[in-house]
What does this fold into?
Amino acid sequence: MLMFAKVVMPDGTEFSLPLVPSASGSRYSNGVSLEIWLKGNELTVSTPSESGVMEAIYECKVK
It folds into this structure.
């Protein structure tokens, strides 16, 4: 299992996200600005909303 994930956003911004505890799936987050969660055949990318709660900005499923 990877201990970190490198993410490149559409604008070219790069993030190296450490693996963080998760009840299921694999979750990578810097705890501030970006989180990716892989669970089964689903991927969710989240960033904080104006209120500070993480909101999904991208979701996809593998067919």
Observations:
- The chain has a mean pLDDT of 91.
- DSSP finds no helices and six strands in the chain.
- The two ends are 22 Å apart (CA to CA).
- Residues 29 and 35 are 4 Å apart (CA to CA).
